[in-house]
């Protein structure tokens, strides 16, 4: 009978060592315990998922875990797609700034406000992004620059905005 506490029995299997010259499993202080872990579906564990649905027009509802958000390409009924991108970028950059601040000697930046501006080209596509960042903490210019630089290194949305990232796609007609 397994004598381990229940919180160990439920989470951790007993490790056994199969001696190559024996038909029995032995676990000793001199053996190297091994076990086979159950298979893990890394395509789920190491991915983010969102479902976007548009019934008509240019507005879409996005289901992200238990959350729902609407984005309207025309910006009439909800933020438009580029506004949503700017908001996601700023929202991701806030925790990156906080961690960057801690790593650069500023333990608490306090209130952070980022005004994100996206300049558009003649085709109404994003040409550039500018952040006006204000923090509550008393931070000198050099430290602020170091925090900003580290924030960009940590920000996942910043990393995702690269030329090499392109969505692989599939398409199915007559699906509904």
> What is the helix content?
25-40%
What is the tally of helical segments? 5
CATH class category of the largest domain = Alpha Beta
Domains (count): 3
H/E element sequence: HEEHEEEHEEHH
Question: Which second-level CATH architecture of the largest domain applies?
Answer: 2-Layer Sandwich
Task: Describe this structure as you would to a colleague.
The chain is 28% helix and 22% strand. The protein has helices at 6-9, 42-45, 81-103, 141-154, 156-160, and strands at residues 17-18, 25-26, 51-53, 59-64, 67-72, 112-120, 126-135. It is built from five helices and seven strands. It is an alpha+beta fold and 176 residues long. The chain has three domains: 1-36, no CATH class; 39-79; 80-165, GMP Synthetase, Chain A, domain 3 (2-Layer Sandwich). The strands form three sheets. The chain has a three-stranded antiparallel sheet with strand order 3-4-5, with no helix packed on it. It has a two-stranded antiparallel ribbon with strand order 1-2.
In short:
By secondary structure, the chain is α+β, with helices and mostly antiparallel strands. 28% of the residues lie in helices and 22% in strands. It is elongated.
Which features characterize this protein?
alpha+beta; GMP Synthetase, Chain A, domain 3; two-stranded antiparallel sheet; 28% helix; elongated
């Amino acid at each position: 009978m397994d004598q381990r506490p229940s919180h160990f029995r439920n989470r951790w299997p007993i490790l056994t060592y199969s001696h190559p010259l024996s038909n029995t499993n032995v676990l000793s202080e001199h053996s190297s315990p091994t076990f086979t872990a159950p298979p893990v579906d890394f395509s789920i564990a190491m991915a983010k998922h969102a479902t976007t649905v548009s019934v008509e027009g240019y507005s879409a509802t996005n289901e992200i875990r238990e959350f729902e958000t609407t984005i309207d390409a025309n910006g009439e009924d909800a933020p438009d797609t580029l506004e949503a991108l700017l908001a996601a970028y700023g929202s991701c950059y806030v925790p990156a700034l906080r961690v960057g601040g801690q790593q650069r000697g500023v333990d608490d930046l306090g209130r952070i406000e980022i005004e994100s501006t996206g300049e558009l080209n003649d085709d109404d596509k994003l040409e550039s992004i500018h952040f006006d960042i204000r923090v509550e903490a008393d931070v000198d210019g050099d430290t602020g620059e170091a925090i900003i630089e580290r924030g960009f290194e940590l920000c996942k949305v910043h990393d995702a905005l690269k030329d090499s990232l392109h969505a692989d796609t599939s398409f199915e007609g007559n699906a509904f």
